[in-house]
Each structure stands twice: as structure tokens, then as C-alpha cells.
């Protein structure tokens, strides 16, 4: 072992983190566009209230983002526990939905800032705050990195598929 800790040299870890942030940003950027497009479309063609339209748009973007994260940004991560992964993704996404739409709710109903421009500004701010939470939670809990056993610190070895007990 090189003595550099899990993941190699500090420069290598920094490059990996930057690549992860770029991929996360690409998926998140497309999710942002989906979110804002659906939000404004729903606001324009229906009579749904602002926060309800926002929640609907957030749900559509969550679906879009899962596909992007699983098959692009985190395609190299552990795929052995898809049910666990999807469950955690939905739980953390729901928390992000509450954060995102809590900002919009507060602006709309707490301060009366409900014009189209104001709604979009506070929707965008809410998405930004929720994105920080989502980045941390997705990389820490949902799309866990596979760490080669040779580089893993004690207790952080790569997942090993369980073998059935043999009766002999």
C-alpha cells in the first residue's frame, strides 16, 4: 500500500471529486431545466397554486435526476443494492423537495412574493439550497463508492456479495 490513504494521492482524490461535481452538475443542470420548465408550464396551463405546481415539477425532475445519476454521474458506483439505493434516493429527494418548496412556500405565503418572476427566483433559490443537501446525501448514502480492498481503511472494504451458507 502506498500510504496515501483510500483513493490515492490528495491530487487524485481532488481530481475525482472535481469530476464527480462536474457530472453531478450536468445531471443537476438538466434536472433544473426540467424542474423550471415543468413548473412554468404547469403554472401557465393550469390553475394549480404555486407550491403545488412546484411540488409536481420537483417530482418530475427527481425521476429525471435518478436516471441521470444512476446511469451517468454514478454509473461506476456499487449497484448491488438497487432497492436500498432507490429507497434512500427517494427519502433524500423528498427531504430536498421539502427544503426546495419550503423556501418557495415561505416567500409566497409568508411574504406575499407570488408574482411570476418572484416565484421563479425563490424556486431557483430553493433548488440551490436543496442541491447542497442532495449532493452531500447522494454521495454519502445513496451512490456509495466502491473502494478496492487494498486501498480501503479498516471497516470500509468494498462490498462483498454474500455467499449462501452451505450445509455439509
TrEMBL record:
It is found in: Membrane. This is GtrA family protein. It comes from Streptomyces montanisoli. The lineage of its organism: Bacteria, Bacillati, Actinomycetota, Actinomycetes, Kitasatosporales. Residues 23-143 form the GtrA/DPMS transmembrane domain. Pfam families: GtrA_DPMS_TM. The keyword Transmembrane helix applies. One of its GO terms (biological process) is polysaccharide biosynthetic process. It is a multi-pass membrane protein. Keywords: Membrane, Transmembrane, Transmembrane helix. Belongs to the GtrA family. The chain crosses the membrane at residues 21-42, 54-74, 86-105, 117-136. One of its GO terms (cellular component) is plasma membrane. Coiled coil: none annotated.
